[in-house]
Design a protein that fits this description.
The chain has eleven helices and 19 strands.
Length: 388
């Protein structure tokens, strides 16, 4: 405390310091050192307090960062700047934490790692404070077990090596935590689900990838570009009437026609789409991660390809969420991982999730390897971002 005998600065309730019981929020450098150094913290605070105030401070700081990430995702921000104090790198709750009225967690911890060699983003005059920039929509997470309890850690990285901020919660609370952090992504997921349902009642066909993809774009952006020139039926629910929507795709608007129009990049397509090209220094795994991150940030990402015989086309849209793991174990392969081994053998262990309506599949969150065989697909499958 600022009024404690050992650290006396002013009489109680006369400053704007967080530890002065006067409604303030500032902290002095030595107070941040106390927070950072457990030996200083517990020795000093065991003499003064029960330690409850320390836990309150932990929670306040953790909720502040989580709130900023939540708001950035709500606004579809691609980058988020956070002011980080390097002397306060760890926090943990000791009980129930209420993030908002509908989000409560029984465990929450946070860890911050910063690059001490980076002077460019240091705040002038405050040697222990730095501004870092993260991508709030990223979904880098891992699960681990400890003391018979499962925990999941969410990590938000910066462009600096070994620099990140991470949060750990109990695994069984992931759903409510993700709903708070990534709420804007849920809207796109729901629209993707609706697109699959609409396609299924609009057309009676084994392969509806073109219908699913163009319907998803229409529902998300009210854009009919992927519908054929002469129009195609759209039935938005079981009870709704059939109506015809016209677009700019070559008739009759099958997947191969969408692919051909993308290849030609006709004016109507170039006005709203741009190709996402793999960088020369990217691995295929990194490229797929970039595509999934774009979808997670709210971008509309569409893929189009022809089969190896150049006879049948296939189109899909990446949906927000966690990437799907590929596998090589024949015993564990399911229809969702039909071609997983073809990716796994190319050292691609995770693939984007997509709206998949080809060859009898109706899934708004299918792994890319459900109907895409990796063998030769990298040359045939191209990805496009909706830019309008």
């Amino acid at each position: 405390h600022t009024f404690a005998q050992s650290n006396y600065l002013a009489p109680e309730a006369t400053t704007d310091n967080l530890m002065d019981y006067n409604g303030g929020t500032t902290l002095n450098h030595w107070q941040w050192q106390d927070v950072h150094d457990p030996k200083r913290v517990w020795l000093k605070w065991a003499q003064e307090e029960s330690g409850a105030e320390m836990n309150d401070l932990n929670i306040i700081r953790m909720l502040s960062y989580l709130g900023k990430i939540h708001t950035a995702n709500y606004n579809n921000d691609k980058q988020l700047a956070l002011v980080i104090n390097k002397d306060w790198s760890f926090g943990k709750s000791n009980g129930l934490v209420e993030i908002d009225t509908s989000t409560k967690l029984n465990y929450l911890s946070m860890f911050i790692m910063v690059n001490n060699q980076d002077e460019e983003n240091m705040i002038e005059g405050i040697s222990s404070t730095k501004v870092i920039s993260i991508k709030p929509y990223e979904r880098n997470k891992r699960t681990s077990d400890e003391d018979n309890e499962s925990y999941t850690t969410y990590t938000f990285k910066t462009d600096q090596k070994y620099e990140y901020i991470s949060f750990t919660i109990k695994t069984d609370e992931c759903e409510v935590f993700e709903e708070y952090l990534y709420g804007s992504q849920l809207v796109l997921k729901e629209l993707a689900k609706n697109a699959v349902e609409v396609a299924a009642i609009s057309m009676n066909s084994n392969s509806l990838c073109n219908v699913c993809t163009r319907t998803a774009l229409y529902l998300m952006k009210n854009d009919s570009t992927l519908f054929p020139y002469e129009g195609s039926a759209l039935k938005e629910s079981v009870s709704s009437p059939i109506r015809y929507v016209k677009g700019y795709t070559t008739n009759p608007g099958r997947a191969q026609h969408i692919k051909e129009d993308f290849d030609a990049m006709k004016p109507e397509y170039s006005a709203v789409f741009e190709e996402i090209v793999k960088n020369a220094n990217e691995t295929w795994q990194q490229y797929f991660e970039r595509l999934q991150n774009l979808a997670n940030s709210g971008e509309i990402i569409i893929g189009a390809m022809m089969d190896s015989k150049n006879e049948t086309g296939h189109v899909m849209m990446i949906t927000p969420g966690d990437m799907a793991e590929t596998c090589i174990d024949e015993d564990s392969k399911t229809y969702e991982n039909k071609y997983g081994d073809s990716f796994y053998k190319q050292e691609i262990t995770k693939v984007p999730i997509v709206i998949e309506c080809g060859q009898g599949v109706r899934d708004c969150k299918a792994p890319l390897c459900t109907n895409v065989d990796r063998k030769g697909a990298q040359e045939r499958l191209k990805w496009y971002k909706y830019k309008k």
